[in-house]
Give the backbone structure.
Amino acid sequence: MAAVATDTLPNTQTDGSSVSEAAPEPKALTDGFHLVIDALKLNGIHTIYGVPGIPITDLGRLAQAEGMRVLSFRHGQHAGYAASVAGYLTQKPGICLTVSAPGFLNGLTALANATTNCFPMILISGSSEREIVDLQQGDYEEMDQLAIAKPLCKAAYRVLHAEDIGIGIARAIRAAVSGRPGGVYLDLPAQLFAQVMDEEAGRNSLVEVIDPAPAQIPAPDAVDRALEVLKGAKRPLIILGKGAAYAQVDETIQAFVEKSGIPYLPMSMAKGLLPDTHPQSAGAARSLALKESDVVMMIGARLNWLLSHGKGKTWGEAPKKFVQIDIEPREMDSNVEIAAPLVGDIGSCLTALMDGMGDNWASPPQDWIDAIRTKVETNVARMAPKLQNNNVPMDFHGALGALRTIIKERPDITLVNEGANTLDFARSIIDMYQPRKRIDVGTWGVMGIGMGSAIAAAVETGKPVLAIEGDSAFGFSGMEIETICRYNLPICVVVFNNNGIYRGTDVNPTGGDDVAPTVFVKDSRYDQMMTAFGGKGVYATSPDDVTRAVNEALDSGIPTLVNAIIDEKAGTESGRIGNLNPQSVVSKK
């Protein structure tokens, strides 16, 4: 802990003459800046993602001087997305540091997204002083940030006194990672940083969080109930969600899936928990598996819009029973009745289930296994020729087919993926082979996560990252390629450029000078943006071009952007969720 020495005065007699004795030892002090840094380091947090400025500029400088890695972004929202992905990958809260008011609001989008996706993250923002905010006297960037943050995160705290910094950060860490993880806001007013206190007292005020995410053991009768439902299944299905990937109990999940013999369907960020080529994978038979199954077991997955809320034509007419593992009891029965809720952490629940299964657990009926396997093989064979085309201009299948092969050959790289068609096609085309190697838009389907997520993945894993971006999605965070170059990160960005949102062929119905709302500048040279910042830009017009450029980038580690020219007619409206985009039925003359 850094310390400063206070000045001391010599003792004097009443007549003013000095006493000839040694001056007392200077008193060692610390301040709010150093207490924040020391509290984070004490809890194993050594990386900060943020944007410097008033009143937290010196916090970043001092953190770097104290050995922390401090990565400065061009926009607070992208620093926040990076922090949330760092939390997802490490199970420790990622730290996003922003300035007050507008900077705080920039980080707030990422904080809300982290909470929705159950990623542990702490947004730390400097703020105006309470006595001015509460009287609304017009301070610099005055805003009641705590009140604004509370509805959008798991917990929110404000620290007013230096001696409370340790306990404030400890509470934020525990809130972020315990139970169902999420985002936490920590409000630090400007005057807090300059507060001074005795160094030893400051050290003693720090708190090391013990067992921040304790195991939550399921009730024995809940385990028995789940086993009874699974035993009675004729066409069972397991759905793996990103919560299963976050849990980092990969061997336990694989052991349970293989012991049960049940086909499994991975949601996009759960791909790779078991290789997508695993014989029990039903990924290429998704429609059949959902429609025909009679018992569905969800592990770290929620019946939200991504699974059509557990009802409707997606699920067919076969009656369903649901088994659900979740650490949050309120998730049960959120859309449909859950026949066997298992409340607890995934590792504990699956271990208890395997113990109850014993050594003679019966696999599902062979006709169900065969039906899934046949559908998988048929769909894979039908897709293969599309993925092997070398068309110019490229379509999504040809370009993604090239990248699919690269991921197969380099399974330890992280794939970041966002867009409309670019995201939807990639989810089904690109196989994953290792857990937590696919990061995408998550529960909200929000665009703009790309560059922040790619930066965090490169920093936290120390391995190359391939970011596959739609041109629209890339526009949200494209300036962060300067950040990528500044820190010389091994990230290859591939922009699927089809001149617009969904496609580049829409026209202005009035015939006016303005282009259609979904159309961009034709033939934009995104590759030259990367070159401008010192990275490598490549203009690619064929799948072969893409293959060469991406392999060279991943081999060299040089920040690279591949501008992949896609046929502007190739896209579809809203990717595969066009049904969520209402169409006007009113015709006006």
Observations:
- The chain has a mean pLDDT of 94.
- The two ends are 74 Å apart (CA to CA).
